[in-house]
Amino acid sequence: MQSVIVTGGTGGIGSSIVQELCAKGFLVYVIGHSHEPKEMHNMVRFHRCDVGKLKDVEQFFKNIGHEAAEEIIALVNNAGIYGDDRGEELLRTNILGPYYMTNSFAAYRRAHSFSGRGAVINMGSAAALHGVTRSPLYAASKSALHRLGTAQALVYAQEGLLSINTLVPGPVATNMLLERKDSLEAAIQHTPSHTLTTPREIAEMISVLIEKRNHNIVGSIITIDGGRSIS
């Protein structure tokens, strides 16, 4: 059995990603900072970890090094924080988290001498590309993540170790947005397709990128935003 690591997999978009991967037959290591998933699928293994702290990340990989009997083929860097009032925590989680997790995942695969490439999918944001945002620091952190992804993709592709890509959704139809009528209407109005991105769309694309990890999809920034980034 093959497995996948998903950070921030305890709610929202993360829950949909985990459900899709479990349905595909993967064992999923879910990382959460504050709480466990409300419902634990029998294909899920939960680990508490603050991805913005290197010691936590190193301990997580040490733990699964003893626990995992199967090959871990992919990492989904989904954990993220929104809101400038959370300042340093936001930057640690949104930038240092993917940096630490990706480097540690590369070290894990290198140490086990797995054949083929592993996959890393970073969760970007359309806020990094254009338009007004209520959280400039969030937008800046996601812009940095996009560049981090391409820079790390180059390094690890040359080694033949990882295929790293970044997924960039527009406004996503999660409860947080659906419950705010004014924000919901504005999001639809400013999306050329007039259709919000769904968590399921994101999860399905992540599944494709994992399945195609040994193909030449490397260092790409893939938008699922209904045309917002080109409008």
Automatic annotation (TrEMBL):
* PROSITE patterns cross-referenced by the UniProt entry: ADH_SHORT (PS00061)
Which one GO biological process term can you cite for this protein? fatty acid biosynthetic process
Q: What is this protein called?
A: Short-chain dehydrogenase
- Molecular function terms, GO-annotated: oxidoreductase activity, acting on the CH-OH group of donors, NAD or NADP as acceptor; quinone binding
Which InterPro entries does the record associate with it?
NAD(P)-bd_dom_sf, Sc_DH/Rdtase_CS, SDR_fam
Keywords, ordered alphabetically: Oxidoreductase
Q: Which SUPFAM superfamilies match?
A: NAD(P)-binding Rossmann-fold domains
Q: What is the lineage of its organism?
A: Bacteria, Candidatus Ryaniibacteriota
Question: Which family would the database say this protein is a member of?
Answer: Belongs to the short-chain dehydrogenases/reductases (SDR) family.
**What is the species listed in this Swiss-Prot or TrEMBL entry?**
Candidatus Ryanbacteria bacterium RIFCSPLOWO2_02_FULL_47_14
